[in-house]
Design brief:
This protein is mostly beta strands. It is 4% helix and 51% strand. The protein has a single domain, classed as Neuraminidase (6 Propeller), CATH 2.120.10.
Length: 344
């Protein structure tokens, strides 16, 4: 069976193309021999508490978390937050004017930032007034906050741009030819990303204008996360890179061709597949010694060194958005529900 990789991302929102099959809990190691057994599976499952429903909302997108809250955009016209521990009710913090839509979110330091289709980036700190921190952009979409800096992808022009989060400086272009759905990670002055079509994982160092390729000929990289000890992990959906697929526009993902791969961030050593034969993993996070990832409506967890096969932690509706931090993992499903799975 094949799945369309082109429907994974829509308007910067993580989406699945299809959902199928019953969940199974693996009890053997990779390759089927000398596996970790049921003890390892139970240990993986025990790293999380029971799933928690935080809110039921309308078409949630752009899910992000900060120290206290889970944030999302509801139907493109309002920004909503909910306490990460599930206490209280979901609260609408911002209502977007009717002639524009919110497209991206970032949160930190008690401030929420958002992009809108009129080319503006806004900020609101606590109960204070909204303010514009960047204006005149070409359709800013996905948004990140790191080290006092906002970074976003200008979807009209495929530009990676940045500016001080407090609005004190002008925006600058960091990189060109960056697709609207590109995931990013940040480590000091370095930015990491993937190119789905080219099958590459890259790093952009501060002050540089060209990407350093950390890995190539990857099969549809769609998500990445920084790991300990100077490592980076990414998820390959299973789509052949353009040079393998012949450069055609209709790239497909073969069932169980996905993988999770690890490499050093400095690029001084090759990439290693730690988990293979996965069904289109499209989001991941590193949680201590474990990797948590999304695959066709299932949330799975495995040792990040690949010493045991993944255990299914949650299965249900198709997952659209995903965010994680030290407190746990958070996700939205196609039915409009915001979920949490807190770390123990």
């Amino acid at each position: 069976m094949k799945w369309s990789a082109r429907s994974i991302w829509t308007s910067g929102v993580l989406m699945l193309a299809a959902c199928g099959g019953k969940a199974h809990t693996a009890t053997t190691g990779p390759g089927g021999g000398g596996g970790a057994g049921t003890g390892a599976t139970a240990k993986i499952a025990a790293t999380a508490g029971a799933p928690l429903t935080l809110a039921s909302t309308s078409d949630p997108s752009s899910l992000v978390v900060d120290d206290m809250y889970v944030w999302w955009i509801a139907s493109g016209d309002s920004i909503v937050r909910m306490a990460k521990n599930g206490a209280g009710m979901a609260e609408t913090v911002v209502r977007v004017p009717p002639d524009v839509s919110a497209t991206g979110l970032a949160a930190g330091g008690g401030t929420i930032y958002w992009t809108t289709t009129d080319g503006t980036i806004h900020a609101k700190h606590g109960v204070g007034a909204e303010k514009v921190v960047v204006a005149g952009e070409a359709l800013p979409g996905r948004l990140w906050l790191h080290d006092g800096t906002l970074t976003w992808i200008a979807t009209d022009g495929q530009l990676l741009r940045s500016a001080p989060a407090d609005g004190s400086g002008a925006a600058a272009t960091l990189l060109t030819e960056v697709k609207a759905d590109t995931p990013l990670a940040f480590d000091g002055g370095a930015i990491y990303g993937v190119d789905f079509d080219a099958g590459t994982v890259w790093r952009l160092d501060a002050g540089k204008q060209e990407r350093a390729v950390l890995a190539e000929k990857q099969y549809g990289p769609v998500a990445l996360a920084l790991g300990p000890e100077g490592t980076i992990y990414w998820a390959n959906s299973g789509a052949a890179p353009a040079e393998v697929a012949g450069g055609g526009a209709d790239v497909s993902v073969a069932s169980e061709a996905g993988s999770i791969v690890r490499a050093p961030r400095d690029g001084h050593a090759g990439a290693i597949s730690v988990l293979e034969h996965l069904d289109d993993p499209i989001a991941l996070s590193i949680d201590g010694e474990l990797v948590t990832f999304v695959s066709f409506g299932k949330l799975l967890r495995a040792p990040r060194d690949g010493s045991a096969e993944p255990a299914v932690i949650v299965e249900g509706e198709r997952i659209r958005g995903y965010a994680a931090d030290a407190s746990g993992v958070y996700w939205t499903t196609e039915d409009g529900v915001v979920h949490a799975l807190h770390a123990r």
